[in-house]
């Protein structure tokens, strides 16, 4: 009888190259590494579906699977649990990878973590956790960009405290449930990675050969100019004829992510914006650096960075003409019918059916 696999839980954290890791190990596949399969390599929806309870399950249901009734959601949970158990039982490789960034989300609590461990334990001879830890300044800047690109209403409030990564809330539960000796936290330090590549570093941590690793995908972040425009549009700080009367409707219909190539400045937060949060969360920073056993590398705060909505409003006005020129060269945004079809495709990709379907 084949020996049960070594189960590796990859727990993010967010903004540490998880998508690239999941693409290589979960979609393209690597010899010696099995995984749960299914339509998505990022199992964040799966871990919430299987292991969330109470308010966390309510939140997941409302935000990620609102088209399903409650009974259908629970039936889906049973089917997904059975599917993954079957994959675990049939695993013949030395490593079974379970990758989900939301495992390290602060609201994925100790109870959910314990239920996950209980689910996985019968199927492996050992379970260990690998997670990357990103410095607070670079994390906050990247996470805020993501919120603005997704038109999150909460991004209108510029509040550094709400962007703090909350290291102890993310990682202490993993130590408590799996044991500190089985939780391997790695600083997200591209200068220390083999060839500067987190995918290669993860392969080294797994102990597998990855001779043909793809490079990390090009940064799709927004520039200082694009972020300022996107923020001001979200906050309602732009005139109706922005950038011009002729292009105003097209501007409002163009998703912020389409502006990834617009502008040349780097989006950063100012010292003054970051300082209160860095000071208030000093104990959390000390906790994670003690847990890592080393200082956490990070970007230095930028004295000329963004600190207020007025900063971004001024930049948006300065680049108004340049944005009009850029819009003229961009592909037309999708029609309403196109958006509906894309949303249907999104649900099909998740393997979901119409509301209430069993």
Description:
By secondary structure, the chain is of the alpha/beta class. 47% of the residues lie in helices and 7% in strands. It contains 15 helices and five strands. The chain has helices at residues 18-28, 44-51, 54-64, 70-90, 110-120, 136-149, 167-178, 198-206, 224-235, 248-253, 271-280, 282-292, 309-318, 320-329, 336-349; strands spanning 6-10, 33-34, 95-99, 126-133, 183-187. A five-stranded parallel beta sheet has the order 2-3-1-4-5, with helices on both faces. Helix 9 (224-235) crosses helix 13 (309-318). It is globular, with a radius of gyration of 22 Å. The chain starts with 5 loop residues before the first strand and ends in a 9-residue tail after the last helix. Mean pLDDT is 90; it is low at 350-358.
Describe the sheet with the most strands: 5 strands, parallel
The number of distinct helices, counting runs of at least 4 residues, comes to 15
- Overall average residue pLDDT: 90
Tell me the radius of gyration: 22 Å
Order of helices and strands: EHEHHHEHEHHEHHHHHHHH
In the sheet with the most strands, the strands line up as: 2-3-1-4-5
Poorly predicted residue ranges: 350-358
Silhouette: globular
Percent in helix = 40-55%
Structural class: alpha/beta
The strand count comes to 5
How much of the sequence is in beta strands? Answer: 5-15%
Distance N to C terminus: 36 Å
Question: What structural keywords apply?
Answer:
358 residues; alpha/beta; five-stranded parallel sheet; 7% strand; globular; disordered C terminus
């Amino acid at each position: 009888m084949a020996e049960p696999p070594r189960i590796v839980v990859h727990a993010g954290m967010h903004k540490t190259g998880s998508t690239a890791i999941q693409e290589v190990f979960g979609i393209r596949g690597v010899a010696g590494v099995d995984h749960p399969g299914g339509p998505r390599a990022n199992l964040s929806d799966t871990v919430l579906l299987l292991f969330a309870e109470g308010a966390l399950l309510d939140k997941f249901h409302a935000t990620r699977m609102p088209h399903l009734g409650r009974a259908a959601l629970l039936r889906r949970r049973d089917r997904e649990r059975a599917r993954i158990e079957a994959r675990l039982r049939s695993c013949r490789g030395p490593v079974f990878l379970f990758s989900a960034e939301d495992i390290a989300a602060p609201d994925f609590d100790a109870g959910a973590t314990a239920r996950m461990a209980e689910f996985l334990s019968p199927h492996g001879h050992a379970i260990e956790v690998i997670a990357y830890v990103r410095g607070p300044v670079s994390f906050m800047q990247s996470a805020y960009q993501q919120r603005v690109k997704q038109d999150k209403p909460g991004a209108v409030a510029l509040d550094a405290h709400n962007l703090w990564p909350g290291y102890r809330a993310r990682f202490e539960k993993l130590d408590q449930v799996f044991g500190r000796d089985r939780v391997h936290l790695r600083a997200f330090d591209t200068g220390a990675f083999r060839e500067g590549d987190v995918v290669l570093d993860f392969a080294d941590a797994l102990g597998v050969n990855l001779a043909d690793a793809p490079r990390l995908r090009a940064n799709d972040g927004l520039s200082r100019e694009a972020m300022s425009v996107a923020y001001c549009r979200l906050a309602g700080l732009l005139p109706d004829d922005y950038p011009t009367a002729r292009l105003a409707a097209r501007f409002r219909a163009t998703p912020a992510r389409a502006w990834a190539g617009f502008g040349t400045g780097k989006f950063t937060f100012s010292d003054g914006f970051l300082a209160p949060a860095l000071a208030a969360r000093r104990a959390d920073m000390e906790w994670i650096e003690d847990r890592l056993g080393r200082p956490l590398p990070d970007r230095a705060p930028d004295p000329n960075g963004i600190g207020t909505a007025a900063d971004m409003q001024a930049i948006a006005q300065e680049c108004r003409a340049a944005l009009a020129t850029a819009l003229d060269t961009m592909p037309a945004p999708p029609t309403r019918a196109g958006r509906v079809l894309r949303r249907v495709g999104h649900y099909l990709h998740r393997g979901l059916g119409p509301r209430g379907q069993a």
